[in-house]
Structures are given as C-alpha cells and as structure tokens.
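Hi F.,

I've been meaning to write this up properly since the lab meeting, where we talked about keeping a consistent format for the predictions we share between groups. The idea is simple: the sequence comes first, exactly as it goes in, then the structure tokens exactly as they come out, then a line or two of notes. No screenshots and no reformatting. I'm using this chain as the first example so we have something concrete to point to.
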Amino acid sequence: MKLIKASDYKDMSRKAANIISAQVILHPSCVLGLATGSTPIGTYEQLVEWYRKGDLDFSLIHSVNLDEYCGLSPENPQSYRYFMNCHLFHLVNINEKNTYVPNGMASDLQEECRRYDQLISELGGIDLQLLGLGHNGHIGFNEPNKAFEKTTHIVDLGQSTIEANSRFFPTIEDVPRQAITMGIKSIMQAKKILLIVNGESKKEILRRSLYGPVTPEVPASILQLHPDLTVIAGEMGELEIPQ
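Output, unedited:
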C-alpha cells in the first residue's frame, strides 16, 4: 500500500488526476473503473482541464462505473449515469458507447448484475479502479455486512448511506433504498486501485479501513489485501496507526 498525504481537497484531486492521467497516457486503450459522489468531482475537473489543454486523449478508453441506483433512469439528474455525463463523459472525447454504468431500470435486475460481471470479464478486467470511502466504510455500495459480497449485486442501502446521499435529493424520502453495485471480487481484481478520501470526518474510518482487522463490517478493509493500492488522503493530519 502506498499512502499519499494531500494538503487539501484540491491537492488530493490533482494528485489523483496525475495517477489516472499517467494510466491513460501509458495505456491509451485501458479500462478505467470510475466512482461517483462528491469526492471525485475535483479529480474529474482536473482531467477535463488537461484534456482541453490537449494533454489527454480518451478516445480509446473504456470505463466501467461502480454502481447505480435502482429505479432511476439515465436521464434522471440524480442517477450516476447523468452524473458521469455531466462531470466527465460529455466533456472529453471518450466514446460514450464505451462507457458502462449498471442499468438501474432493467426489468430483471438480477440478470443485469450477471450481465455486468460478464461485461467486465469481456473487457479483460479493470486496469485502474477509482474508489471513494463512505463514512461506514463502504466502497461502491458494498455496505457493512456479515460477509463480503463477491459479484455485482443488489444492495439495500444502509441508513447512514441514505442520510449521506440525501443532500443530493429534494428530501431524504426521495433517496432510493436500493442500488446495483460492483462486488468486492470485481473491485479486488482490478490491476490497480486508487482510493481517495478527504476530510477530518473520514479520518477514523480510513484508519480502520487501512490498519484495522479485515472484516466485512468495514468493507474497505479488504483493500489491505490488494497488491497495488494507492491511497490519497486530504485534510486529515496524522493518521493514528495501531501497533
């Protein structure tokens, strides 16, 4: 594991974008695993800026997103497809046909989960997976549980996740209660993982994720077992490392 400390959110975003841009430059047809939420917005903004300057070319890139809400269409402003279009896909020269987000409107959601795993396999797996970290330790929408969910699956969102995401919706009642999420196995099979975390409020869960016991009660703790994990932490000061 490589832990990089950033001075603030902007510094964290730039450092993360540096790693992603290096991946794109060195491997122009790679598969990027992408995340949504407030944390990666700055990273996407930096990538878009470098693209506009002519430093990056996304034309051969494929992307696979971690998750999507059940019941939201791609045109819904709160859907993750809409988020990605607004923050990255429509702002760079990526072929939209090569961008993949789970279909939360699928008539058979279980079949959609199987299809998504097959898609990742057919792409040859994920070269670099970008992750954020939830306050309860979730990655993607893999919530604290009694066992690690291996494959893409339907998840009932935890109350803390619903509350955290409610800021994006008119009311907390409007937040979907279920989502499709890539499973731990698919995430862990990525060749490289980049975890970005910002803010004092996530300091303790990051410490537990990186240095506590590996347990499905803290889903991100599984990342300790990945052979190529980079963590960029902003605005956290010193992390207390257990002896």
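Notes:
Residues 2 and 230 are 5 Å apart (CA to CA).
The longest helix spans residues 9-26.

If this format works for you, I'll send the rest the same way.

G.
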